[in-house]
């Protein structure tokens, strides 16, 4: 038989049965209870079982309210929402049976630095589509955070714990007036579940932190926090204590994502900052509007990521990469072939010191080729990006490559980032080149930048400004030793 100690996680329940659900393995513990992988022995399918902490559902009134909510959430069916199969109780302990998600949480993926811009936007887009469906049915999530979104092995995002946060709210009779800003934190959740408060506060909307009524725009705020976290690896609002974090949420502006990560396109800042506005009326009005903005942005990104290459083009690209990874490119391939032939010939002739001269000369050329490789790769990068209409200048200074762009579509950012990665991938040795993309710089900053040493490319004219004169394709600033 189960007891409170079991439910609170101090006893391993693996191998036991809860009604017709077999508990197979412990998955994890959150603020609301313990999650196990299990099996529905009637339907013979894998399930996840969440045993709710008894403290959360102590009063009968509260339990009924929760069960009602959970039933509404169970009625939701969408690929981006983890399906709730059942809600039941054993010995007064409530448990929720849901779809078992074989994958990793977004929180884990962020910690492992496995998300790039395109996958972050893809996840946010899938989640917001799920939210749209829930909001249409009149259900708010209330606890969107990176640990409540899982991504399956085949890249499907699944939102977990729909409506469960309702459990964290104080029971109506005991509640403080809605205007009490610390109600959610200190009176209830703070006392019973301190860990949860720490984990959840950074994703709260300002109205949630103040204990006000919530609507769909509160979920959109929290999703904005997750998107911010996915693209920068950092949370937008941080404080030493939950109270400090709540203060930041209510009164401080988050640092723009494009300041935290200089390579991000301005569009991602526009979307995230609109989600994170303090007043709900300044945010996206609904999930549908945010979904269509994310979709447009995603298409723009995809058009720059060249995932649409045909197999033959991929092969060609692979061959090009291989050729260019040999010093001196195609010439290098011939030289290597020549050395091999020579070595074979030497094997069949009687040894003579004079025969070493040819390989020695080739060796010197190869050494020079390798030594100058980084410079060549930088010049090659500058040449390729300079063909993009939105690129205004390329500067390599102090070991860092800065590409200046103006009015650049998101695809340009993806392309530039891709070229930087390609360049770093071809380096034989030495540190990878640090790179940043500076977008829409004010005229003075732009002028200051192109006066530095190491300008590899600068567009002759800036739209709306007089010709840059001497600075256009400036030989004076050319990179020393650059071909
Ligand atoms: N349906 C599921 N399938 C697979 N793993 C799950 C499922 N639901 C939860 N998990 C995993 O179980 C662990 C605990 O989840 P839980 O929801 O209890 O904690 P949390 O999300 O960190 O906090 P909170 O209680 O605020 O939701 C997490 O690692 C989560 O990824
Ligand atoms: Mg959870």
Would you mind describing this structure in some detail?
By secondary structure, this protein is an alpha+beta fold. It has four domains: 2-99, 2-Layer Sandwich (Phosphorylase Kinase, domain 1), CATH 3.30.200.20; 103-171 and 179-302, Transferase(Phosphotransferase), domain 1 (Orthogonal Bundle); 326-370; 373-478, Alpha-Beta Plaits (2-Layer Sandwich), CATH 3.30.70.1770. Helix content is 44%, strand content 15%. It has 18 helices and 13 strands. The strands form three sheets. The chain has a six-stranded antiparallel β-sheet with strand order 1-2-3-4-6-5, covered by helices on one side. The chain has a four-stranded mixed β-sheet with strand order 12-11-10-13, with helices on both faces. It has a three-stranded antiparallel β-sheet with strand order 7-8-9. α4 packs antiparallel against α8 (216-232), α5 (183-192) packs across α6 (194-200) and α11 (266-275) runs antiparallel to α12. It is globular. The relative contact order is 0.07. The protein binds adenosine-5'-triphosphate (ATP) and magnesium ion. The site of magnesium ion (MG) has 5 residues, from loops.
């Amino acid at each position: 038989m189960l007891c409170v100690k079991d439910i609170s996680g101090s006893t391993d329940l693996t191998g036991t049965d809860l009604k017709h659900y077999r508990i197979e393995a412990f998955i994890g513990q959150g603020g609301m209870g313990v999650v196990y992988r299990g099996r529905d022995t009637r339907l013979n399918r894998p399930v996840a079982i969440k045993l709710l902490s008894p403290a959360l559902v102590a009063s009968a009134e509260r339990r009924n309210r929760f069960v009602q909510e959970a039933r509404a959430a169970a009625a939701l069916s969408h690929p981006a929402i983890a399906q709730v199969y059942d809600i039941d109780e054993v010995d007064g302990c409530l448990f929720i049976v849901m779809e078992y998600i074989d994958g990793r949480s977004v929180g884990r993926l962020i910690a492992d630095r496995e998300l790039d811009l395109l996958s972050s936007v893809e996840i946010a887009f899938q989640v917001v589509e799920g939210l749209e469906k829930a909001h249409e049915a009149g259900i708010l999530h209330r606890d969107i955070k990176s640990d409540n979104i899982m991504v399956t092995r085949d890249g499907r995002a699944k939102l977990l714990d729909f409506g469960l946060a309702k459990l964290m709210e104080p029971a109506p009779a005991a509640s403080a007036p809605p205007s009490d800003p610390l109600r959610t934190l200190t009176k209830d959740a703070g006392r019973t579940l301190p860990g949860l408060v720490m984990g959840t506060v950074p994703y709260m909307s300002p109205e949630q932190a103040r204990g006000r009524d919530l609507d769909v725009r509160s979920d959109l705020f929290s999703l904005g926090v997750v998107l911010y976290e996915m693209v920068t690896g950092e949370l937008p609002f941080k404080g030493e204590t939950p109270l400090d974090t709540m203060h930041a949420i209510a009164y401080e502006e988050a640092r723009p994502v494009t300041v935290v990560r200089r390579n991000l396109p301005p569009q991602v800042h526009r979307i995230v900052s609109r989600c994170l506005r303090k007043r709900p009326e300044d945010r996206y009005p609904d999930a549908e509007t945010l979904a269509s903005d994310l979709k447009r942005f995603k298409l723009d990104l995809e058009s720059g990521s060249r995932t649409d290459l045909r197999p033959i083009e991929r092969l060609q690209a692979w061959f090009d990469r291989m050729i260019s990874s040999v010093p001196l490119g195609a010439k290098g391939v011939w030289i290597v072939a020549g050395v091999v032939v020579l070595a074979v010939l030497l094997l069949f002739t009687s040894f003579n010191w004079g025969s070493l001269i040819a390989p020695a000369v080739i060796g010197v050329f190869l050494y020079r080729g390798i030594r100058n490789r980084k410079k060549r790769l930088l010049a090659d990068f500058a040449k390729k990006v300079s063909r993009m209409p939105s690129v205004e200048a390329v500067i390599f200074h102090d070991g860092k490559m800065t590409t200046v762009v103006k009015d650049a579509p998101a695809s340009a950012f993806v392309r530039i980032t891709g070229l930087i990665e390609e360049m770093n991938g071809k380096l034989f040795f030495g540190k990878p080149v640090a790179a940043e993309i500076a977008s829409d710089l004010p005229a003075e900053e732009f002028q200051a930048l192109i006066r530095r040493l190491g300008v590899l490319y600068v567009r002759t004219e800036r739209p709306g400004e007089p010709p840059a004169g001497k600075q256009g394709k400036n030989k004076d600033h050319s990179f020393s030793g650059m071909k």
